[in-house]
Amino acid sequence: MTPSQGSERRARHSNVHRGKHRGEEANENFARGFLALSELALAGVQVSARATDLATGKELFSVDDHVVMPTASIGKVLLLVEVASRLAGTSAEAFTVLDRAPRDAVGDSGIWQHLQSPSLPLADLAAMIGATSDNLATNVLLRHVGLESVRARTEALGLTRTALLDLVRDHRGPDDAPQLSIGSAKELTWLFASLARGEIVSPEVSQRVIGWLSLNSDLSMVASAFGLDPLAHRTPDHGVLLVNKTGTDGGVRSEVGVLRGPRASVSYAVSTYFADTGLSSRLAVLDGMRQLGMDLLEYVH
Fold first, then answer.
1. Averaged pLDDT score across all residues of the chain
2. Domains contained in the chain, number
3. For 228, how many CA atoms within 13 A lie in the half-sphere containing its CB?
4. Which one of 10, 43, 179, 295 has the fewest CB atoms closer than 10 angstroms to its CB?
């Protein structure tokens, strides 16, 4: 994306109607998070968020949860669902070795680009996406299964406002999709709640995806409030268990997850889109997401 394209896109988003913020109807436990996100919206940040009780499905918190937002790497979850579906009922394909090719090369997140091995098993690539949102592994898996297959799987799940639009690119030209992925907070909370309940495709498929996502090492956004070890949180820590996926791009910070605690469990999603013109703007967004995380932690713990 060129600077001019980014400016034009931010201008379009700044004119989008922000809809109804249902803070007055939200559980009073979420007043702090609602205030923090409202302040961001007043400062020109586009915000969409939702939290639901995992056991009852009750809406706990909602801010423009129907709005389609850029979600960066969160769309990779849809790729993982498709890969897990192909592995269902068989263990042999998990060991299929895939080679990286020059056309797959991409920078930013992930570790495979820094490793010597030119080939890795399919299941290992999925684990790398879950752990570090590995861009190179994403492109290799997408080349293997096909973006059209991921789109078909997304449609079969009934998702109409959430999609993986493209492979990962260092630079997006005028003929490329403007974002890697998009999604609405309402659909994303449903997706993660359904994964947690074993309802996406099958219990086996859901559990495999949850296993990959449980490796995620990015706890820089909402999950920064949970006090967990970023590199090791696959088992409960002080009664808290998290599975999440984040998305980061220029002016985009997004997170979706399931948080379990001694008192309750929640599915949540928060997406922000902002003019990332200075460090203070970015830190304000991250702090607002953390404030909501503190409310989520209090609800479950």
1. 91
2. 1
3. 33
4. 43
